[in-house]
Design goal:
The chain is α/β, with parallel strands linked by helices and about 400 residues long. The protein is built from 16 helices and 10 strands. It is globular. The structure holds iron/sulfur cluster (2 copies).
C-alpha cells in the first residue's frame, strides 16, 4: 500500500480509503472485508451520521481485535439537522457511541455547498464547540465535504483554518465543482484533500459511451476502466486519500493492488494522449462544449454557468436522475440559487466565452431539461431542510 503524508500533522494515510457507505448487507462479510483491507494496509475509513446504520456497523467491526487503533475514522455531521448549539454535542455523542470510540480522527461538516451554511453554524457557536472538542482530544481534525461550484469552494477554504477537505474528483469532473483548480488551491494552502466519487458512483465504469470502453480495451497498457479512472486521480499528488466504496473481494483486491503500485505523476505521454481521446469522445457525446474555464463568471444574477452546463451534459453521460441531483446540489440548494432560470439574458457572459457558446440559449435549454415541475418545490423543500 502506498501512503501520502498529511502535510498538516504528519499522519501517514493510505492513498486508498475505505468508503463504508456501500458495505455489503451481511455484517460478517463487511467485517471480513474490513479486516482484509486493514491487513493490506488501508488505514482510513469513511462513514457519516446519515448513512443508515453504517457508523454502528463500522464501530462494531473496529471494536474487535484492536483494529480501531490501526485506523483513522472519518465521519460527518449533517449541518441541516443542527438547529441549536446543543444539537452539536447530541449528534457527536451518538456518533461516539455508534463508533465505539472516544475520538474521531477526521470530522467533517457534511456536504457543504456554500459558505453561508458554514456561517449559520458559526452563528450557532460551532467554533467554540470544535475548540472544546479539539482540546479534549475528541475531534482531532476538522474539515468539510463539498458539492458546490468553484468560486464558493475557494470562499469556503478561506473562511476557516480547516485541517482538511473532501471534494468530488474524477476525470469527468476535472473542471466541475471544486475541480482541479480547487484541488490545487486547497493543497497550496497545506490542506490534505480527500477525494470522493473517483468513479462517479460506478458510472465511469458502467455508463460511458461504448467507444470509450473500446479505447481502453485497445490501449497501450491493458487496464480495466476502474484502474484507468483510479490511476487518473492518483496521478495528482494533491489527492491525499481516494475513497472507494468497496464491497466485493474482487474490488478490494483490484483497488489494493493498484494503490500498492501507483505513483503520482507517473502517467506517460501515451496515457495523457489516451485521456485526451476519451475527452474528445465525451465532448462529442455531450451537447454543450463547456470546458468549465469560468471566464464567463461572475454573472450579475449569480448564475453558475459552468455548473449548469456540466449538469446538462451529465444527462448524456450518467443519466437524467443523476444529472438533476447534481444540478440541485450545485445550483438549486444554494442560498439565492444559481440555477439557469435566474438568467435575465443580458448577454454579458457570452463575450468572454472562448468556446463561443450561445450561453443564453444554452441556459434556456438547461432550464427546460433540468427544472421540471418538481424543481421549485424540491428546491424550497431542500433549502428549508438545509435551513437557509
Ligand atoms: S446572460 Fe444570463 S448568465 Fe449571462 S451574465 Fe447575463 S444573466 Fe448572467
Ligand atoms: S466561458 Fe464558456 S467554456 Fe468557459 S465556463 Fe463559461 S460557458 Fe463554459
Amino acid at each position: 500500500m502506498r501512503y501520502r503524508i498529511n502535510p498538516r500533522n504528519g499522519d501517514k494515510l493510505s492513498i486508498l480509503g475505505f468508503g463504508c457507505m456501500r458495505f455489503p448487507k451481511d455484517e460478517q462479510e463487511a467485517a471480513r472485508q474490513v479486516a482484509y483491507a486493514i491487513d493490506q494496509g488501508v488505514n482510513y475509513f469513511d462513514t457519516a451520521y446519515i448513512y443508515s446504520g453504517n457508523e454502528a456497523v463500522l464501530g462494531r467491526i473496529l471494536a474487535k481485535d484492536g483494529y480501531r487503533d490501526r485506523v483513522k475514522i472519518a465521519t460527518k455531521i449533517p449541518p441541516y439537522i443542527v438547529r441549536k448549539y446543543e444539537d452539536l454535542e447530541k449528534i457527536f455523542r451518538t456518533q461516539l457511541t455508534r463508533l465505539q470510540t472516544d475520538h474521531i480522527d477526521y470530522y467533517f461538516i457534511h456536504m457543504l455547498t456554500d459558505v453561508k451554511i458554514w456561517d449559520r453554524l458559526k452563528d450557532l457557536g460551532i467554533l467554540q464547540w470544535l475548540e472544546e472538542k479539539r482540546r479534549a482530544g475528541q475531534i482531532v481534525n476538522t474539515g468539510f465535504s463539498y458539492h458546490g461550484g468553484r468560486d464558493a469552494f475557494v470562499q469556503l477554504v478561506d473562511a476557516h483554518d480547516w485541517d482538511f477537505c473532501m471534494i468530488q474528483y474524477n476525470f469527468l469532473d476535472e473542471n466541475n465543482q471544486a475541480g482541479k483548480s480547487g484541488l490545487q488551491y486547497a493543497a497550496a494552502k497545506g490542506m490534505p484533500v480527500m477525494i470522493m466519487e473517483p468513479l462517479r458512483g460506478g458510472k465511469l465504469i458502467s455508463a460511458l459511451p461504448k467507444e470509450v470502453y473500446a479505447l481502453w480495451e485497445n490501449a497501450h497498457v491493458k487496464r480495466t476502466p476502474a484502474e484507468w479512472a483510479l490511476r487518473w486521480v492518483w496521478d495528482h499528488p494533491e489527492a491525499t486519500v481516494v475513497l472507494s466504496g468497496m464491497n466485493t473481494q474482487a474490488m478490494l483486491e483490484e483497488n489494493i493492488r493498484i494503490a500498492s503500485e501507483v505513483e503520482a505523476h507517473s502517467f506517460t505521454d501515451p496515457d495523457y494522449a489516451l485521456f485526451e481521446q476519451v475527452r474528445e469522445l465525451l465532448r462529442k457525446a455531450i451537447q454543450i462544449p463547456c470546458t468549465g474555464c469560468g471566464y464567463c463568471l461572475p454573472c450579475p444574477k449569480g448564475v453558475d454557468i459552468p455548473s449548469c452546463f456540466s449538469s446538462y451534459n451529465d444527462i448524456a453521460i450518467v443519466g437524467k436522475a443523476r444529472a438533476v441531483k447534481n444540478y440541485l446540489m450545485q445550483t438549486g440548494m444554494r442560498p439565492g440559487s444559481a440555477a439557469a432560470a435566474q438568467c435575465v439574458q443580458c448577454g454579458q457572459c457570452e463575450t468572454h466565452c472562448p468556446q463561443s457558446i450561445p450561453i443564453r440559449d444554452s441556459l434556456k435549454m438547461t432550464s427546460r431539461a433540468l427544472e421540471g415541475f418538481y424543481f421549485k418545490p424540491l428546491q424550497v423543500l431542500l433549502r428549508k431542510f438545509m435551513r437557509f
